[in-house]
Amino acid sequence: QVQLVESGGGLVQAGGSLKLSCAASGITVSYNTMAWYRLAPGKQRELVARITSSGSTNYGDSVKGRFTISRDNAKNTMYLQMNSLKPEDTAVYYCYINQGYWGRGTQVTVSS
After folding, report:
1. C-alpha to C-alpha distance for 112 and 107, rounded to whole angstroms
2. How far is CA 56 from each of CA 39, 68, 69, 106, rounded to the nearest angstrom?
3. pLDDT in tens, 78-92
4. Cβ(67)–Cβ(47) below 8 Å
5. Which of 14, 38, 68, 109 could be 91's S-S partner, Cβ–Cβ 3.0 to 4.6 Å?
6. CA distance 112 to 109
7. Any residues with CB less than 8 A from the CB of 69 and at least 6 apart, and which?
8. How many of the other CB atoms lie within 10 Å of CB of 22?
9. 34-69: per-residue pLDDT in tens?
10. DSSP letter string over 47-71?
Protein backbone atom coordinates (compact mmCIF):
# COMPACT_ATOMS: atom_id res chain seq x y z
CA GLN A 1 0.00 0.00 0.00
CA VAL A 2 1.00 3.61 -0.40
CA GLN A 3 2.74 5.25 2.55
CA LEU A 4 4.10 8.75 2.94
CA VAL A 5 6.26 9.37 5.99
CA GLU A 6 7.35 12.88 6.90
CA SER A 7 10.34 13.68 9.06
CA GLY A 8 12.59 16.60 9.90
CA GLY A 9 10.26 18.79 11.87
CA GLY A 10 11.19 20.33 15.17
CA LEU A 11 11.69 23.49 17.18
CA VAL A 12 13.83 26.25 15.69
CA GLN A 13 14.41 29.91 16.39
CA ALA A 14 13.20 32.57 14.00
CA GLY A 15 15.66 33.00 11.16
CA GLY A 16 16.72 29.39 11.33
CA SER A 17 16.36 26.53 8.87
CA LEU A 18 14.84 23.07 8.72
CA LYS A 19 14.66 20.45 6.01
CA LEU A 20 11.63 18.23 5.84
CA SER A 21 11.59 14.87 4.11
CA CYS A 22 8.72 12.80 2.76
CA ALA A 23 9.67 9.21 2.08
CA ALA A 24 7.24 7.40 -0.20
CA SER A 25 6.62 3.70 -0.57
CA GLY A 26 4.18 1.87 -2.80
CA ILE A 27 4.20 4.71 -5.31
CA THR A 28 6.81 6.40 -7.51
CA VAL A 29 7.28 10.05 -6.69
CA SER A 30 8.77 10.97 -10.04
CA TYR A 31 5.60 9.93 -11.87
CA ASN A 32 3.34 12.16 -9.80
CA THR A 33 2.71 15.68 -8.63
CA MET A 34 3.55 16.01 -4.97
CA ALA A 35 3.05 18.82 -2.53
CA TRP A 36 3.61 20.11 0.97
CA TYR A 37 0.67 21.56 2.85
CA ARG A 38 0.54 23.00 6.32
CA LEU A 39 -2.12 23.44 8.94
CA ALA A 40 -1.80 25.88 11.78
CA PRO A 41 -4.21 26.16 14.72
CA GLY A 42 -7.20 28.26 13.82
CA LYS A 43 -6.22 28.51 10.18
CA GLN A 44 -7.18 26.76 6.96
CA ARG A 45 -4.93 24.24 5.32
CA GLU A 46 -2.45 26.04 3.10
CA LEU A 47 -0.50 24.89 0.07
CA VAL A 48 3.17 25.47 0.76
CA ALA A 49 4.81 24.11 -2.37
CA ARG A 50 4.17 21.74 -5.24
CA ILE A 51 6.40 19.83 -7.63
CA THR A 52 5.10 18.16 -10.78
CA SER A 53 6.31 15.01 -12.47
CA SER A 54 8.24 17.19 -14.93
CA GLY A 55 9.93 19.03 -12.08
CA SER A 56 8.02 22.28 -12.31
CA THR A 57 7.52 23.95 -8.96
CA ASN A 58 5.25 26.54 -7.45
CA TYR A 59 5.01 28.06 -4.00
CA GLY A 60 2.56 29.75 -1.74
CA ASP A 61 3.04 33.51 -1.59
CA SER A 62 4.00 33.43 2.07
CA VAL A 63 7.01 31.15 1.48
CA LYS A 64 8.32 32.30 -1.90
CA GLY A 65 12.03 32.98 -1.79
CA ARG A 66 12.45 31.17 1.54
CA PHE A 67 11.37 27.58 0.90
CA THR A 68 12.54 25.17 -1.78
CA ILE A 69 10.81 21.94 -2.80
CA SER A 70 12.79 19.14 -4.40
CA ARG A 71 12.83 15.39 -4.81
CA ASP A 72 15.34 12.59 -5.08
CA ASN A 73 13.97 10.01 -7.50
CA ALA A 74 16.55 7.42 -6.50
CA LYS A 75 15.43 7.69 -2.88
CA ASN A 76 11.76 8.10 -3.81
CA THR A 77 11.69 11.05 -1.43
CA MET A 78 10.50 14.64 -1.56
CA TYR A 79 12.03 17.46 0.45
CA LEU A 80 11.22 20.92 1.68
CA GLN A 81 14.15 23.15 2.56
CA MET A 82 12.89 25.93 4.78
CA ASN A 83 15.11 28.95 5.39
CA SER A 84 14.57 32.26 7.18
CA LEU A 85 11.82 30.69 9.23
CA LYS A 86 9.27 32.92 10.91
CA PRO A 87 6.96 32.27 13.87
CA GLU A 88 4.03 32.31 11.44
CA ASP A 89 5.51 29.24 9.73
CA THR A 90 4.60 27.24 12.82
CA ALA A 91 2.27 24.45 11.72
CA VAL A 92 1.96 20.76 11.06
CA TYR A 93 3.41 20.07 7.62
CA TYR A 94 1.87 17.34 5.51
CA CYS A 95 3.13 15.54 2.45
CA TYR A 96 0.61 14.89 -0.33
CA ILE A 97 0.74 12.96 -3.56
CA ASN A 98 -1.83 13.49 -6.28
CA GLN A 99 -3.22 9.99 -6.09
CA GLY A 100 -5.00 11.17 -2.96
CA TYR A 101 -2.57 10.08 -0.27
CA TRP A 102 -1.43 12.06 2.75
CA GLY A 103 1.29 11.60 5.30
CA ARG A 104 0.64 11.91 9.02
CA GLY A 105 2.44 15.22 9.28
CA THR A 106 5.44 16.64 11.10
CA GLN A 107 5.31 19.54 13.55
CA VAL A 108 7.36 22.65 12.84
CA THR A 109 7.56 25.21 15.62
CA VAL A 110 9.38 28.51 15.15
CA SER A 111 10.07 30.53 18.26
CA SER A 112 10.45 34.29 18.23
Report:
1. 16
2. 24, 12, 10, 24
3. 999 999 999 999 999
4. no
5. 38
6. 10
7. 36, 48, 49, 50, 51, 57, 59, 78, 79, 80, 81
8. 27
9. 999 999 999 999 999 999 999 999 999 999 999 999
10. EEEEE-TT--EEE-TTTTTTEEEEE
